[in-house]
Amino acid sequence: MRKGTKGTPTALKHGGYSATGLLPGEDPAAFEKLHQDLIAELRPDGPLESDVVATIVRLTWRKQNLETFRIAESARNRYSAIRSKVVPPTEPPLIHIPFGNFDRNWVPPDPAAVKAALETAKAQAREELGDKYRFVEIGEAATIPRMFEELEVEERLLGMIERCIKQLFHLKGLKSVISSSPSVSPLKIAGPPKAA
User: Fold this and answer.
1) Domain total for the chain?
2) What is the pLDDT of residues 119-153, one digit of tens each?
3) Which residues are bridge partners to 106 per DSSP?
4) Full residue range of the structural domain in which residue 168 is found
5) Residue 157 contacts residue 51 (beta carbons within 8 Å)
6) pTM of the entire structure?
């Protein structure tokens, strides 16, 4: 995986992770083995069939590795707990009084103190979570709702591709029928007999 600035993987900086693909901590060699096994079993021929097999690989992988989402959620929850404990609130607390909705005596914290507290929270979370901190960095990419969003988009795209393939096969069928039918010369309509 290529590195971006400050050692952050490029995929993290650009949202390169997909909830239906390989996520941090998952074994790329095992993913590739599954891909090769399914290629051997399904024997795709051509780019369209290879694309269908690739989709089957991703969905099978995700089904077999749902635990990754639980690990990611746990890591994000722990980071959130650390952050809420260490970082001072940047908005006034809501209070229940009849004519207002926030504490008017509240003073916002110093931005430098907030920044320092955020760094402290990140450092504590990195130390405590270890490799699982990657899920904090990629944010929503490793969530079940995100996976469902991606699957919904994929389903719509697959439906459109399927319609195009049906149209293509229909046109190819018509061309095949036309090209295989014998050439017939147009019928001549006989006119009235000529007078002698």
Assistant:
1) 1
2) 999 999 999 999 999 999 999 889 999 999 999 99
3) none
4) 14-85+108-173
5) no
6) 0.66
Strands (DSSP E) found in 39-179: 94-97, 100-102
Amino acid (one-letter) located at 108: P
Token output for 41: 């079993």
Whether 94 is in a domain gets the answer no
- Window from 60-74, 130-144, 164-178 with minimum mean pLDDT: 164-178
Q: Strand pairing of 100-102 and 94-97?
A: antiparallel
Q: What is the distance between the alpha carbons of residues 32 and 38, in angstroms, rounded to a whole number? A: 10
DSSP-derived 3-state class of residue 97: strand
The span from the CA of 26 to the CA of 67, in Å, is: 10
Three-state SS for 27-58 is: CHHHHHHHHHHHHHHHCCCCHHHHHHHHHHHH
| Closest by Cα among 15, 37, 6 to 141 | 15
| For the chain, counts of helices (H) and of strands (E) | 7, 2
Q: Is residue 191 part of a domain?
A: no
Q: How far apart are CA 168 and CA 106, in angstroms?
A: 67
